[in-house]
Amino acid sequence: MAYYFIFPEKDATLYSHPDRTQMNSGHDEILEIVKEKGNSDQRYYPSRVLIQFRNEDIQSTISDKIGTSIFNNATTEVALQLLSSEHKNLTSVLNLEVFAVSQSWDEGTGRYSNIPTSSNGCSWVYRDNDITKTGWTTSSFAVPTTGSIDALGITKGGGVWYTGSAFQGSQQFLNGDSLDTNINVTSIIQKFSASLAGRIYPDGITNHGFLIKQPDSVEQDTSSSFGEMKYFSVDTHTIFPPRLVFKWDDSLHSSQSLAKQNGELSVSLYKNQEEYNQNDEATFRIHVRDKYPVRQFASSSNFLNVGYFTTSSFYSVRDAHTEEEIIPFDNNFTKLSADNDGMFFKLFMKGLQPERYYRVLFKHTNNEGTIVYDNNYHFKVVR
Predict the structure, then answer these.
(1) Residues 63 and 203: beta-carbon distance below 8 Å
(2) What tens digit of pLDDT does each residue of 222-232 get?
(3) Which single residue of 33, 249, 292, 338 has CA 20 to 30 Å from 69?
């Protein structure tokens, strides 16, 4: 344990294409990082993505699930995950950058395909709508922020964000890599959390969400495109909305001396209710015993003996239908715990998509190597 998921309250794509600088896409099912070719010129115009999570969700996760002291002691990680949709014509090396946004913005209800174009929310030019017309700052930025774009022929705008290593994250994708994002934004979330406790810059900043973009050198090169990167938005009708993933280690294991270091093992899951409410916090227990126990005289069954994996044992959760790895085997954050009754782990159902089945797997490393146990242990999350 543990992984905990929260989902955005709003997101949108900002387009710099001349036909779409005032277009709002707040209710689009897809978020796009693209460079669109102009209709009447040879320039390629970049897009950027805005995404924001509720302060209440962030703070309750930190205070009620993790604990403020644990969250701030450098053993917790927070990742921004966007799940990929359809990608086209990508270059072999891609980079994405994430920044903490420094100005508020309205999501709006527009869509890319709306006719006429809807502009009742943020766009490349405006951070609210084309009626009030509150523009993004494009010059004389307040310290320590920056924004806009410096490229011939591209309209100024596209958001404003904080500068400095504590206010940003990044991820590189190589040819063949999964294009799902897993960007470490721990320091930014710590700044958001500190702001809710009354602290100001540089210790705390107001949560206006994240801005996702290509590096300046890529955006400002208007002579070529890197392809199209597309991700599911919070308005998707699939099971793949963006999410903020909190990861921390609260495992306890003081039975290493009793752990099974060799031999074939029989592993079973018990205390599995098989159906859980999406707000439940479930405890799963694992029975570990020798598959071929040494013959000996005993007054009780070998099946009643408590057995243990080593401290190098982990769990994973997959979607039973799609095989998507919801919670991967993570050497830092999915360790199995042990007590007098054997091995166990806790799982937060909140953040798993309801009305779906999931499968639990275990991984154990001992003197004979590493074995993954996949015995089709399933459970369902319901509303």
Answers:
(1) no
(2) 999 999 999 99
(3) 338
